[in-house]
Amino acid sequence: MSIYFTESHEWVRVEGDSATVGITQYAQEQLGDVVFVELPDSGKDVKKGDEIAVVESVKAASEVYAPLSGSVTEANSALDDDPALVNSAPETDGWFVKMVLSDKGELDGLMDEAAYKDFVKNL
Amino acid sequence: MTKTADTAKPLPLADLHRKLGAKMVPFAGYSMPLQYEGIVAEHEWVRAHAGLFDVSHMGQLEVRGPDAAKALEALMPGDFIGLKEGRLRYSLLLDDNGGVIDDLMVTRRADHFYLVVNAATKKADLAHMTRRLPDGVSIEERSDLALLALQGPAAADVITRLGGEVSTMTFMRGSPIRIKGSEIWISRSGYTGEDGFEISVPVKKAEKLAKLILDDKEVKPIGLGARDTLRLEAGLPLYGQDLSPVSTPVEAGITFAISKRRKMEGGFPGDERIRRQIEDGAKVRRVGLKLEGKQPAREGAAVYSGDAKTGVVTSGGFAPSVGAPIAMAYVAAADAKDGTELKIEVRGKKLAAKVVPMPFVQHRYVR
């Protein structure tokens, strides 16, 4: 299992051909109180960089992008009742979607944890 | 975003905001605190205790001259001739078509009128008023003054603990008072729906006063984010979103800003159109909407009655004290009645919403 990060502050945990996607601690701090998350239906096919979800904080709506191409297998229904999970546990219980990857070669374009930490430090 | 924040003008309390851990954002040309602890926590704190807002970006103006009251009546629909000393009136600068140029507070002081106008509009307001005020009536911007707002149920106790005498001051009244040896101007007014005060203080003394107020354990600093959610719940329009030259006061549902005598006599810009709308009703109205579910609708979202577009959201978001998303919108008069079921389109989805009376959260003014 490996975790990767994007410059738009999504994380993706990869296990074989499956992946779980969410937004980072840094992203939730920037967004502030999350009040609603619009999630895709399972079965939806996405390309890397497509809008995959929208997260609404008190102050604004922000898009979340697919870090990798593939097909959505599950959206986190716990976020319907408790969108604040994105604030309290962004990198665990506050995950957004699970997906099956179609092109693992795309992983090359993502950052590992150390690279992402450096990236955030320089923002 | 960061670049704009750097070029935006700092507020007099910029250092204090930074020390308090504020996240600063550019707003109306100023670098303003968006939040300290978090918008929802700050919002809830104001409803339960008291919050201190730095609103020094707003314009503080003084209008003086023997005919100042009459001159202001030629620009706004308020009764300023009849306004007693130490009383505030919410008013509107109107264009000749009855559209709203700005909304503002007008206070009669002993020898002049004191106006508080919006930050984004203050330059244009000054130009407009300078052009229209007659000889012998002057207008001056007091950029040497800071403006603080202390809002919430504990606000009066906080001022009292600092030695300020406000026990006989009711809503929409103001007077000079002394706090710790300094004279400040204070009025019982605000933009949250809560009891509270607005305090005009020389820039040089502002930080000291802010620190004294923040030393009270009932007070926390509150940013622009919570200011917006609080005013939205209180049903108070925000200029530039809910008010603009496109809409008249009747359409905006703020005819209370047109004093009784002025309604009868007219003599303010756009009076014909506005008086006709008061008689016959306006074609569109600003309404409050409560949404079903949790998804918020924001400024610009289209509002539908059945399949027909009836209007547009001008402000909207999650309302912490309501626990649901709410919005203000302009809709066709036929769809403006309380209880009307409408839809708001957000990213292709139509969300169910219902017209509800405003305020969304009861005002708690001390009258």
Q: Which range does the strand content of chain B fall in?
A: 25-35%
CATH-defined architecture of the domain at 2-57 and 144-233 in chain B: 2-Layer Sandwich
The number of domains of chain A: 1
Strand order of the largest sheet of chain B: 11-12-13-10-4-14
Look at the structure and give the CATH class of chain A.
Mainly Beta
- Name the poorly predicted regions of chain A: none
Name given to the CATH homologous superfamily of the domain at 2-57 and 144-233 in chain B: Probable tRNA modification gtpase trme, domain 1
User: What is the fourth-level CATH superfamily of chain A?
Assistant: RNA polymerase II/Efflux pump adaptor protein, barrel-sandwich hybrid domain
| Rg of chain A, nearest Å | 13 Å
State the distance separating the first and last CA atoms of chain B: 42 Å
Write a structural description.
The complex is a heterodimer of chains A (123) and B (367). Chain A has 123 residues and is of the alpha+beta class. Chain A has one domain (2-114): OB fold (Dihydrolipoamide Acetyltransferase, E2P), CATH 2.40.50. Chain A contains 4 helices and 9 strands; from the N terminus they run E-E-E-H-E-E-E-E-E-H-H-E-H. The longest helix of chain A is centred in the C-terminal third of the chain and has 9 residues, at 113-121. Chain A binds chain B through residues 32-33, 35-36, 38, 54, 56, 58-61, 80, 83, and chain B through 34-35, 38-40, 225, 228-229, 294-296, 298, 317-318, 320, 325, 347.
Concise account of the structure shown:
Chain A is an alpha+beta fold. Chain A has helices at residues 25-31, 78-81, 85-88, 113-121; strands spanning 2-5, 10-15, 18-23, 34-38, 45-46, 51-57, 61-65, 70-75, 97-101. The longest helix of chain B has 13 residues, at 203-215.
